[in-house]
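URGENT: need a sanity check before tomorrow's submission.

F., can you look over the F-box domain-containing protein record below? I want to be sure the sequence and structure line up before it goes out.
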Amino acid sequence: MLTYFDHLPVEILHMVFQYMSNSDVFYSFDALSPYINAVLNEYCSRTIDLRCISKSRFDFICNHLDLSRIISLTLSNDDHTPQQVQLFFTRFRLEDFLNLQSLTLLSITNEEIRLILSDLSKLRHLSSLLTTSRSAEPLLLGQTLTHMFALKNLSIPYGDIFDHNVAFPLHGLNVLDAGICNFLELRRLQRIVPSLVSLKIILKANHQLQLLADVNIWAQLERLDLTLQNKMTTRFDEIDGLLRRFGNLKHLSLNIRGSSNELANGTRWETCPTIVSLTKFAFSFEFVPSLVDSPERIHDIFVSFCSYFWREFKKWYVIVTVDKIYTITSFDNHEFLECSCPPLSTAPNDQWFYSKVKRIKLDKQIPFNNLNLFSKLEILDVPNESTLSLLLNVNQFAYLRHLILRQSFLNETAQIFLTRNSHIDRLTLLQFDYTELFVFPTIRYLYLEESIRILTRTQIKILSRTFPSLTSLVIHLNDFQLVYTIIDRFLHLQNGIFHFYKLTKPISQQSLKQHTHLEYTASSFICRTESKKFVLWINNSNLPRELTKPIEMINSIAEQRSDKCLLQ
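Structure tokens as predicted:
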């Protein structure tokens, strides 16, 4: 049967798809018509990104994968999708991804990646391997990498992945994110990957700069992203000496600390030949000490970066504060701003500021009349009810998804605001008044800070009535048995992150089935227990009739079951 979408050309459909993740596109449009399926196969089947996905959609997509077409695959074991990597590779063999070119494994441990290490070398076309770790333990990939002859791009969390048994250089590897490296690890990297053209690295000490500047190593670098860790301070001449060794550099990023007299002089940077030849220069220089009481010094710094070279020739605009100077391209979009006024900047206008800021923390000093200017605002931090009431008539929060309330006022004011801004589906609370009986059905993601101590089933009962539509919950509990109550009260829950105030015993899948409605449903779920944390990932798409009744009846059923669980 023809649909309205069948009348749209492929180009228009692709424009629509760009506003959604690939997994959402596939889940939403699959099986509409043969024409749409053909478009989906070309658009979605080559790149599979399973980060931050619900368990039900994960299961759906896994049932529709064409392994031979996939060229890029991203998996994650973070708290939102625990054990996803292991679960995925119990369903599929890595060696069956015949045309895979890029593999990204996020938030994994050495033990978890070890399960597929032997199969990595079987991927003949794999040119990119990107990893992050959720532990301090390095991912020992050295021996495997020597057999991955097509690999060109590697990202790792720590520089000591290469053990001493790697006998020969990996000349094919030319793009490396080396993570954090000490002196010995840096020396080993220089020997094993001598052909780099792009390097991102975090150094632990200043004396590593001299080793990095070795004229015989990595002289062909075209991109360098350099960060100095900890409290190390740097002088201009150290950086200048390093950069003069890399005559081919086109893209440079620096994150360092030092005296404003050493680093914050635009005229001085213009004398470095490498800087002059750069196409892109992004930096963040933290001042030691800060310039809190030095307005004249801040003015001098600002003027030195207002020259023709910076503003007209290179168009490298900078921001100057009392704590640091940084390029606009290094502006942290997700940093909480406590001021809605643009900072001191060499940019020709303030449009960059209003289009980049995504998080604002309101206070009494912030004027509300310019909040409409923040066209991409996603997170709003509100201190009290009176502040929120002033926002009731502010329009154009089109991108706002997340509201943070620092006091307990889930009352009529909050209800009106959330009703008028129904696209807000995420809420963070620092306080909660269990006597307020308002219902917020649009909230899907709830984050309860540690200051809210959940001690009883009654508190959970009130929470479930206040937020009946939750799919994701982050909460701090006093007792692990309260997890069972939460699962039975929040029947739409897909992801739960439970923090405990003390060490807790592991919660098994069997105990979850025994003490919750998961025993009576066809739901599949995955869980992971850590020392003071338990994470849960549920496919609850197949709820029985008993659990699809009105919310009052559901709550009654869940309460009876919870009472039984606690008695056991």
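My own read: The chain is about 30% helix and 20% strand. Residues 337-443 form one domain. If you see anything odd, call me.
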